[in-house]
Amino acid sequence: MAISQVQNGVANGDAVAAAPAELDTQASKLTINLATQLKDVPPAAELKFGQVLTDHMMVAHYDPIHGWSAPEIKPYAPLSIDPASSCLQYATNVFEGMKAYLGPDGTPRLFRPDKNMQRMEMSAGRVALPPFDTNELLKLIKKLVMVEKRWIPTVKGHSLYIRPTIIGTRSSLGVAASDSATLYVIMCPTGPYFRSPRPVNLLAVQEHVRAWPGGTGGYKLALNYAPTFKPQQYAAKLGYDQCLWLLGDKITEAGAMNFFAVVRRDDGDLDVLTPPLDGTILPGITRDSTLALCAAHPSRTTLPGLDPSIRLHTSERELTVPQLAAWADEGRLLEVFSVGTAVVVVAVGRIGFDGKDITLPSYEGSLGPVGRGLYDRLTEIQEGRTEWDNWSVPCDS
């Protein structure tokens, strides 16, 4: 029995007859109400991340007595919430970022969606939001994607971005966990996150900290993002695209992306390095996929364009900006790139630190051999053109 249910029953003097209802996608529970008028889908060349939302959304509500309401797929519309809701007062907001792609057979596909569901469950638990069945939520997402199939771009580098969100709706100013919630899913067609093909430039930031040991950096919470906006504006004024978040001189994340460096070893092989998941870094699905594919080269697969005689050694280890500068001076730092759902893989051109720039090797097309091989292989898998460990999941399954 849920703790919130017991507390509510005691507070109201009510006997609890049954456990709150679970999130349920049975035909008898899920309702689908389609819009009578559909929007025009913009040309792929005009798509900007997050600006055009699709026709429909999925919504379900939770209260501590009845549990989850019957989920509904309905026309996209504003939500109605109490001004005292926990999400507005105490930032009890959790979201995920996923993408749908159209496979060669015309079937919409998701990329490792089980990982997104696991992370969303973990993040919701961190801010004590009501639990939900991740398998049922994934079924709802698949149904919504099928309803909005016409919105999935067919141009390479484009996709349908999916934003599952859960917000606390307890209508009280009391400082406590929210025992009520709204779960919803919205979607938007999108092109490349960075419109320019050039590498991104990062400003290393020490005076503003994105996340700290024991904090919430390892969870996908809305409260992690707002404090980064002001430093990002400052970085932009100095000519940088994103902030490189530091703890002291230790690297954590690049903007909202995971950070990677490729370093040449004495034996000619390559080290592919990324900071460890120490609680200050979001466990990215693209990060995990990058490590897996690099570790598999060349034994299980060969990354496109990469010499199969070169072995990649992956390592999750502490990285500092002075280390990067030293490797660059020695000519051993071959590539720096960042990865994430929105960008997939993007090259880093220079890093500003302590008034100076660390300039990184440049390559035709911006990405180096490792980054390019990863981008090509990841997009092949995401679009269902290459099978790999069941990472690409059809929405009709």
UniProtKB/TrEMBL annotation:
Q: Would I find Transferase among this entry's keywords?
A: yes
Extract the Pfam families matched here.
Aminotran_4
What positions are modified (N6-(pyridoxal phosphate)lysine)? K220
A GO molecular-function descriptor: L-leucine-2-oxoglutarate transaminase activity
> Which Enzyme Commission number(s) are on file for it?
2.6.1.42
The record's annotation in InterPro entries points to: Aminotrans_IV, Aminotrans_IV_CS, Aminotransferase-like, B_amino_transII, BCAT-like_C, BCAT-like_N, BCAT_family
List GO terms (cellular component aspect).
mitochondrion
Q: Which reaction does it catalyse?
A: L-leucine + 2-oxoglutarate = 4-methyl-2-oxopentanoate + L-glutamate; L-valine + 2-oxoglutarate = 3-methyl-2-oxobutanoate + L-glutamate; L-isoleucine + 2-oxoglutarate = (S)-3-methyl-2-oxopentanoate + L-glutamate
Q: Which GO terms describe its biological process?
A: L-leucine biosynthetic process; L-valine biosynthetic process
Identify the keywords attached in UniProt to this record, alphabetized: Amino-acid biosynthesis, Aminotransferase, Branched-chain amino acid biosynthesis, Pyridoxal phosphate, Transferase
Q: Which cofactor does it need?
A: pyridoxal 5'-phosphate
- Enzyme group, top EC level? transferase
Family to which the UniProt record says this protein belongs: Belongs to the class-IV pyridoxal-phosphate-dependent aminotransferase family.
Q: What is this protein called?
A: Branched-chain-amino-acid aminotransferase
* Organism field: Polyporus arcularius HHB13444
